[in-house]
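Entry:
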Amino acid sequence: MKNFKRFLKYLIAYRKFQIMSILFNILYALFSSISMLSLLPMIKVLFEEGEKLRVKPVFNGMKDFDLNYLENYLNYFITTTRETKGPLITLITVVGFVLTTFLLKNLFSYLSIVYMTYLNNGILKDLRQDVYNKVISLNVAFFSNERKGDLIARMTSDINTIKTSFMSVLMMVREPLTIIFTLAAMIAISWKLTIFVFFFIPISGYFISRIGKTIRSQSGDIFALEGQLLSSIEETLGGIKIIKNFTSEGYFSKKFNDFAENINTLNNAIGKKMSLSAPASEFLGILVISVLLVYGGTLVLVDQSLSGGAFIAYMGLAYQILTPAKAITRANHALQGGNAAYERVAFILDAENPLQDDPNAKVITEFNKEIKFNNISFKYKDEYVLKDFNLTVPKGKMVALVGESGSGKSTLANLVTRFYDVNEGNITFDGVDIKNVTTKSLRKQMGIVAQDSILFNDTIANNISLGIEQKDKNQIIASAKVANAHNFIMEFPNQYENNVGDGGSLLSGGQRQRIAIARAVMKNPPIMILDEATSALDTESEKLVQDALENMMENRTSIVIAHRLSTVQKADLIVVMKKGRIVEQGTHEALLKKKGTYSNLVALQSLEVN
């Protein structure tokens, strides 16, 4: 119930729909009882029951308005109508009244559901938006520790479960009201018979609570397994070529089948419990009605304190209680599943972002002097990736970071863009600690071109102009020309409006990289960060991309992380790294003369040394 209370905050924006739905639910519950009571005059007409009254009962105010007054007025109406218009017209009149009550009951039911649908869909939209906004606001480290498929499951199927479960609880306004109005009508007819009904409610409630205890925990297990199942699907689709190349279809099929089998077992266990509750509740209801039939029969046949018509109407009301009682049972079970689903969604909503901007963070709008790494140390988990690292990147200079894999080059790019925060030391931007500036304004000063050029399933133009609200076609074309991308774009049927496919699958590696470079150029930041931007390309593509990179870096500050040393020979400063520390630094020529680590790397790559 705790999670359901948290969920209620989403009702505020749609309270007018909730109020209208509650109003129509009240009217529905009222007319549900009236519709059953309306059967009583029809029975009186058909079986000529009731006292024949020809004098209209006197109404002296609300103190006379009770069941006796209503019954006397009904007898008067039936007697006078039958004598003046005949039994058929009387029956048609009474049937018309019955139809009217059932029509109003169903009309109010429809209206309550319509307004609840508006409420339901609005809340679902807001919850989805909140979860999505939270996801994209979290730091990169959060995603390193979580399965992508499980996060997708939490954001989709779990939210849908919340919708169906919590909404079924919100719809429960009508069920208790229906029971209350029905019980009131039953008490008015016979309080003695109604006592038996009260035995059914606590017995059913106890039975429901016993079943519901295990449903919540098992629902949580199912949601977790479904998240793993989705992760398995996502990994399979992403690595289908590797799976086929290593003929490991059987392994992945078995892994998937194990997940599916576990989910199937838990679903069956929950299904058995949920399937048992409704018929068991109905049987308990029929048991009570059977007792009512026996006891009520004595009141009609032996004691004669209750008329046959009143008893039939009473039995209709008693049976009518079963439907809302079963609905409450289902809602209780749904609430257990909804609680488990909300706990998984709340895991995202409650996740803390350690990189949140300080309330007094400064907004930077330009880059004037330098970026400095001041004695920084950093570790992802236990071991330090960088230790006591110092480096200055002056404005307008190209600084290249080279070294073996795992030496910490890419980590520096993650730190300067504040995807992660340093453990010790600090990084300053024009003398200001980057922890004291807004993350958004910091990243606006930087453009990144990585080894894996990530494109979105959209047009070329939209990929180039990513993040720019006022999109200028001429600027897009100019950026593409700087990136050596304009010529191949013009060869596509739809040119700049051509779709790049999922992840840029309709483009070659070199084309994707040049689109990524055009995107960085379009952003037009003063600082460029190139992370292994050409390492995955063939020689011809590398030449085109390298030319594009040189065009892009002109008159900009650049931090270049490179594996291929041919791409950094023109750098103003080359920093050679090993195990998170600087072992050498200098220009290409100066480092070659040292005959040290850099010279060895050049030799290994068979570069021509002049």
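Residues 2-349 form a domain with the ABC transporter transmembrane region fold fold (CATH 1.20.1560.10).
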